[in-house]
Write a structure and sequence with these properties.
The protein has 252 residues and is an alpha/beta fold. It is built from nine helices and eight strands. It has a five-stranded mixed beta sheet, with helices on both faces. The chain has a three-stranded parallel beta sheet with strand order 6-7-8.
Length: 252
């Protein structure tokens, strides 16, 4: 690995971030193609079921009127080698005659798990793995967790004052929030990424939340209430907005 490899991979990671909340259950992937020290193509996986990052980067080269032949491709995850909703990226890379592929990390899923990298090597492409690997695995932590363990990635979120309090006793407008605007925006970004938001019935009774991401764009997760005694009010915002996203009230 050299400084240019790391710089280009970080650019690919930034591109990958754009797909978060739109590509799940797929991982978010970014790709940059470099030739003679110049970036000639960029791409990322934009939406589940649509073209993958590598194909988009190759098409970007074509749009710019340059050929990826002999270039280096930086991709944040091992290219796929199986036929799914889209064709195998390895075949597109081989057809584009890319000389070198640098992958941040191997894809541990059963369809890949090194098979894509080996397919590229068999085609005579120089392959390197492990550039910015920690960052790439963190970017897709939910994907790696599920693929390797079969378990969901769980985010525990709460707001707490410096003296350990979870809410103000006086719920005046000035003391409505413990959090600030930046942390609330971060929480909404998390909401757009997850598959479900889970709260206890006391949160529903105290706050009457909608549990939706704001602004309302991208994926809307399922809303789950843990309510053993079935105390959720029929007039609550959750039950009044079933078309926004599903609501599951769990009583056992």
């Amino acid at each position: 690995m050299n400084a240019e490899d790391e710089k280009s991979m970080r650019s690919a990671l930034k591109l990958a971030e754009k797909g978060i909340s739109s590509v799940e259950p797929n991982p978010a992937v970014g790709c940059v193609i470099v030739k003679a020290g110049q970036v000639i193509g960029k791409g990322y996986h934009k939406k589940f079921g649509q073209a993958h990052a590598e194909v988009n980067a190759i098409e970007d080269c074509q749009t710019l009127g340059v050929r990826p032949e002999g270039g280096t491709m930086y991709v944040t995850l091992e290219p796929c080698c199986h036929q799914g909703k889209t064709g195998p990226c390895t075949q597109a890379i081989i057809a584009a005659r890319v000389a070198r592929v640098v992958a941040a990390t191997q894809d541990p899923s059963e369809h890949a798990n090194g098979k894509g990298l080996e397919q590229l090597r068999q085609a005579g492409i120089d392959v390197e793995v492990g550039v910015c690997e920690q960052e790439a695995r963190l970017l897709n932590a939910p994907f790696f967790k599920y693929v390797t363990t079969g378990k969901s990635w769980v985010v525990l979120k709460w707001a707490q004052s410096i003296d350990g309090k979870l809410a103000y006793a006086d719920q005046s407008p000035e003391q409505r929030w413990i959090t600030n605007e930046a942390s609330r925006n971060d929480a909404h970004r998390l909401r757009r990424r997850v598959g479900a938001i889970v709260v206890g019935i006391n949160t529903v009774l105290a706050d009457d939340p909608t549990l939706t991401p704001r602004p309302s764009k991208g994926k809307r997760p399922m809303r789950v209430v843990l309510d053993d005694a079935l105390k959720i009010p029929l007039g609550s915002r959750l039950l009044r907005t079933p078309k926004t996203s599903p609501v599951l009230v769990y009583t056992h």
